[in-house]
Amino acid sequence: MKLATRINSFLPKFNNDVEEVLQEFNRLGLTHVDFNYPEHVETISAKKMKGILQANKLQANGVALRFRDEFINGELGNADQRISMKAIQLCKEACDYCREVGGEVVTIWLGFDGFDYSFQIEYEKVWNQIKDCLIEITDYAPDLKISIEYKPFQPRAYAFLDSFGVALSMVHEVGRENLGITLDYCHMLMKHENPAYGASILGSREKLFGVHLNDGYGLNDDGLMIGTSTLIKTIEFIYYTKLHNYDHAFYFDTFPVIEEPVAECERNIKMIKKIDSIIDRLGMDYIAELIKQNSGVKVSDLVLEILI
Ligand SMILES: [Mn+2]
């Protein structure tokens, strides 16, 4: 299993030094790293970062775009063409950095493309603009996977790419093989989506390019430790990633604010390994057969077996 976690959770404890954080990742047994672009790499060239990764027996999973400041009224879909072009440029630079550090996936979360008011944006124009931007970015880096991470809201009242269905429609319209989707477990709960449903459809179509694990209660991006709130849903989600041989990193997108970050991450690692071993103990075929029975009461039996 390729495992990664959120650098920002560790930075305050490690002198805000990415290199120190990566040393700790290695000690913890994590295998992969996702860098926020540009914030985590501004002062470290790709060549130097590659050396730091190698020294710590880590591999880059990829980079994740972080848009700030001038993008607060929209990134790719901004009504101001100059800002939209700057957003594209930032994505292209992220692709270059990703390639140079040996990563495979560039994750794009359009946190500011969205709206807060009725009559605020031209939906069709924004849709077409984001589509054209994604075509330009995917064609710029055909050797990399470009992955849309959607979220229903926050910071905008409504995100533009807000759900599994909308994101998949966009992927289909863009029509590029190297465009896919990152499923963030908490974001799915916020939209009242069942995470496993997304993993099944995207996994079966080779469009599952990223998995962010965490847990929550659905009303907010809680970022709790994995398996602590909706364990059965998490087990179902992981089952489908295994079924479809998902082979990028599982990224713990959790927010230890009160908890000590190293101790918190250790629990995430223990939990995903435990879930993986429970699925192996039950057997993929056994679970597949149970699902075929299409029976609620058999699900209750399965939960009891999980608890053994
Ligand atoms: Mn995420």
Question: Which key terms come to mind for this protein?
Answer:
alpha/beta, TIM Barrel, Xylose isomerase-like TIM barrel domain-containing protein, 308 residues, Xyl_isomerase-like_sf, eight-stranded parallel beta sheet, 12 helices, two-stranded antiparallel sheet, Xyl_isomerase-like_TIM-brl, binds manganese (II) ion
Describe this structure in words.
This protein is of the alpha/beta class. It has a single domain, classed as TIM Barrel. The chain is built from twelve helices and ten strands. The protein has an eight-stranded parallel β-sheet with strand order 1-10-9-8-6-4-3-2. Helix 4 (81-100) packs parallel to helix 5 (123-140). The longest helix is centred in the C-terminal third of the chain and has 22 residues, at 261-282. The mean pLDDT is 98. Manganese (II) ion binds next to loops. Manganese (II) ion binds at residues 149, 184, 212, 253. This is Xylose isomerase-like TIM barrel domain-containing protein. Residues 27-274 form the Xylose isomerase-like TIM barrel domain.
